[in-house]
Write a structure and sequence with these properties.
By secondary structure, this protein is an alpha/beta fold. The chain is 38% helix and 20% strand. Helix 4 packs across helix 7.
C-alpha cells in the first residue's frame, strides 16, 4: 500500500475508525506528521482533536536511533528502549539529561501550537492516538502510557503503516491497534508515501487553526 500524502492516509484511516464514531471519540495527534493525519480523522468522525507532545531521546552519535522518548504532563513520562540503551553502554544519567532538553522543546511547541485552547477531557471517552507511521514504537509507547493515565474508557492506537512486530508489541499498551498496512521488511515510513515532506511549525499551526474552526458533528 502506498499513500499519496498524510491527508490521503488520514482519510483511509478514518474509514477504518468509523466504528468508533458513536463511542465519544477524541483524536490525539502526535506532531508534526500525525497532525495532518489526525485532522482528517477528526473531521471525518466529527470529533475533538488534541495533541500529545512527545520527543524522541536519540543516541549520542545517532540522533535518529531512539534510546527512548519523553512526553509532557504534570509528571513527565519517560520510556527507555532498554535493548538500545544497553547496547550503547550509555552513562547512567544520559536519559535524564536528554529528557530535560526535550521537555524544553515540548514546552515551546505547546505554546506555539495550542496557545490557550482548552484540552478535551478524556475520562470515559475513546482516545484515538494517531501518527503518520511507526517504526520502533518508543514515541508511541510513551504517549500511550501518558494517555492511559487520563482514564479514557478505551485507548486506540491508529496509524497508516507500522511493522508487524511493533504492532504486536504496542498492542499490550492499548486496547486496540488499527494499522492499515503492516509490511515485513519495513525499511522506513517514507517509503509508503509519495509525498512525505518534513512538516514545519507553520503547517501544523495552520492545520490546527482550521480544525478549531470546523464545527463538530453529532455522533
Amino acid at each position: 500500500m502506498r499513500f499519496i500524502d498524510r491527508q490521503d492516509a488520514g482519510r483511509q484511516l478514518a474509514a477504518a475508525l468509523e466504528k468508533f464514531r458513536r463511542q465519544d471519540p477524541v483524536v490525539l495527534a502526535l506532531p508534526r506528521g500525525g497532525v495532518a493525519v489526525g485532522c482528517e480523522i477528526a473531521r471525518a468522525l466529527g470529533c475533538g482533536l488534541d495533541l500529545v507532545l512527545v520527543r524522541k531521546i536519540g543516541a549520542p552519535s545517532q540522533p535518529e536511533l531512539a534510546v527512548g522518548a519523553v512526553v509532557d504532563g504534570e509528571h513527565p513520562e519517560i520510556v527507555v528502549n532498554e535493548d538500545v540503551a544497553a547496547a550503547l553502554d550509555l552513562p547512567a544519567d544520559y536519559v535524564d539529561r536528554a529528557a530535560k532538553r526535550e521537555l524544553a522543546e515540548i514546552a515551546r511547541r505547546r505554546r506555539l501550537y495550542l496557545k490557550d485552547r482548552p484540552h478535551p477531557g478524556l475520562k470515559g471517552k475513546t482516545a484515538i492516538l494517531v501518527d503518520d507511521g511507526i517504526a520502533t514504537g518508543a514515541t508511541a509507547r510513551a504517549a500511550l502510557h501518558a494517555v492511559r493515565r487520563q482514564n479514557p474508557a478505551r485507548l486506540v492506537l491508529a496509524v497508516p503503516v507500522a511493522p508487524p512486530e511493533t504492532v504486536a508489541d504496542l498492542a499490550r499498551d492499548c486496547d486496540e491497534v488499527v494499522a492499515l498496512t503492516q509490511p515485513e521488511g519495513f525499511g522506513a515510513i517514507g517509503y509508503f508515501y509519495a509525498d512525505f515532506h518534513q512538516m514545519d511549525d507553520r503547517e501544523v499551526i495552520a492545520l490546527l487553526d482550521r480544525a478549531a474552526e470546523t464545527p463538530q458533528k453529532p455522533g
